[in-house]
From TrEMBL:
HEAT repeat feature ranges: 151-175
Protein name: Uncharacterized protein
UniProt KW keywords: Repeat
MF-aspect GO terms: protein phosphatase regulator activity
One Gene Ontology CC term in the entry: cytoplasm
Source organism: Timema poppense
SUPFAM superfamilies: ARM repeat
Amino acid sequence: MAILCLSPFYMFLSTFPLVRPIERNSFLPRLTEFLLTDNEWNWRFREELAEQLLMTVGLFSPMDVRKHITPLAIALLMDKVAAVRHVALYLVTQLVHHVSIDTVLMRGLLAELAEQFAHSKRWSRRQTFALLCSRLVSEHVLPEKHFARDILPHLLDLSWDRVPNVRLAVARSLSQDILAQKYFSSGQSPHHELIMPVLKRLQVDQDRDVRYFAVVRPRLMECCGNESS
């Protein structure tokens, strides 16, 4: 029943003729009610909430999104259920894109994500940060120079993580997504000089899967070679 009530949420806000922007914004402070204890064990409800929020982000200003939707999105990205986190990953990616027009809001959001995930004591959240990095880069969500300044240092620090699954996610993000961008793959880039030693270290990691994902694929290796020649 809860999902049935939540499903038309986006349609109501976006198309209902009587919902003016100022009235639409009045719903924002009440969004946290969807995560009350009654729904703690209903993971499908939380998955649906993440999907509805994903469609709703564009209806609000970056400031309102940062204030009201970000806390919900972060909570969903920390969810115990993988299916909920999967949708929340898209949601947070969209949040970053939406607020990126305001540098102050964007840097504040990126700092919060780093604090909540990259520096978390829970390895699953540190892994989630690496997965988020992959999406931010591959989807070109924010300028590469901002990614390099505000996100990349935290990702590189996670290459030393004690948990193999975290190092694996870091290796895959670096080799498959970040080095796929010319901004990072160019031999003239100072970021390339930081990334390659990390990948070389991960290529001799004690974990076999980490070593596998730390290898830059031939297409990217050729690209890097052309850039540096």
